[in-house]
Amino acid sequence: MSQQPDHQDPVAEYTKVESIFVRHRNCLLLKADFSPIFTDYYLHLMEHKLRHKPELDSALKDLLAALTLHLVARPWAETIAWTATLRAPRVNFFATGSSVKEQITGTLFTKDVKESDRSLLFSQTVHPETESRKSMIEIDSTDPLKWIENYYTHSEQRPGRAFRLKDDQYALVAAQPDFDEEWFNSLTVEQVDAISEDQETKLLETRKFYFSCGCSEEKLLGSLAGYRDDPDALFGDEDEIHATCPRCSAKYTFTRDIFARFDEAEKNSKNESS
To answer: Phi and psi for 179 in degrees, rounded to 5?
Structure first.
């Protein structure tokens, strides 16, 4: 069962994202080593016996990194979900994250993907105190780092450039008002990697993220509660059914005694609270 790491555990690994203001260039640099997130991502795949083609696997990792960096470029308390529907190869990518919960997760789908005449990126941003914000842009690449650059141009209405650095490190440079456009447009991977040494910078904040969906057997049980009085409608002639989390593709198996266990858990919860 997938569980979120204990944030109080001092040995729990997480990805630390630095938010750095580049003085005189008026740009925001988001930078992180994603090795901890990628390690937990692969452990998740192993636990649920999932396997992706190498090129799709790499693209999903890029998407997880890009969204994490974007979350840190945005205000606190936002939850953001991105869905990319590609025309060729025919595949759907999904990633979602929250700065408050310090979580990032995602998955991809290659089966039963509807044919589309173009590739699209859908974004939904949710904030507890404002209305959710949705946007859609057309994408013309299979590279998620190009998707986020297009997203910044059309949805954030400011330029942004994403970079793969050495090993599992990534960076996002987001333009601020009155930014140095010539410097921004000429940036190379090597220059971005050395910004903190070559430019005058100020560390604004750091945030930490774990690869974790937060799904569980109990949460999926809640979605099946309507079948309590008619389990045959759910199971048919089978003794067990299989359910998949739409956010991370975690697999769960339920047997016919699930509702008895669910009722017992509810009863124990009420007794504890009384």
So the answer is: -75, 160
User: Looking at residue 267, what is its pLDDT?
Assistant: 67
**pLDDT digits 0-9 by tens, 130-171:** 889 999 999 999 999 999 999 999 999 899 999 999 999 999
CA 265 – CA 271 distance, rounded (Å): 10
CA–CA separation, 46 vs 49, rounded Å? Answer: 5
Nearest to 82 by CA among 247, 251, 250: 247
- In order of 111, 139, 268, the CA distances from 116 in angstroms are 14, 12, 49
73: left (phi over 0), alpha (psi -120 to 50) or beta: alpha
Q: Report the Cα 264 to chain-centroid distance in Å.
A: 34
What average pLDDT score do residues 17-45 get? 97
The mean of the pLDDT values for the chain is 90
Q: Is 109 helix (H, G, I), strand (E, B) or coil?
A: strand
> Range(s) for CATH 3.55.30.10 in the chain?
15-211
Q: What residue ranges in 101-167 does DSSP mark as E strands?
A: 103-109, 119-127, 130-139, 160-164
**Cβ–Cβ < 8 Å for 261, 272:** no
Residues of CATH 3.90.1280.10 domain(s) within the chain? 217-273
User: Hey, what CATH topology would domain 217-273 get?
Assistant: CBS domain Like (3.90.1280)
pTM: 0.88
Distance CA 200, CA 23 (A): 5
Nearest to 69 by CA among 160, 202, 143: 160
Class of the domain covering 15-211: alpha beta
Per-residue confidence at 5, pLDDT binned at 50, 70, 90?
A: very low
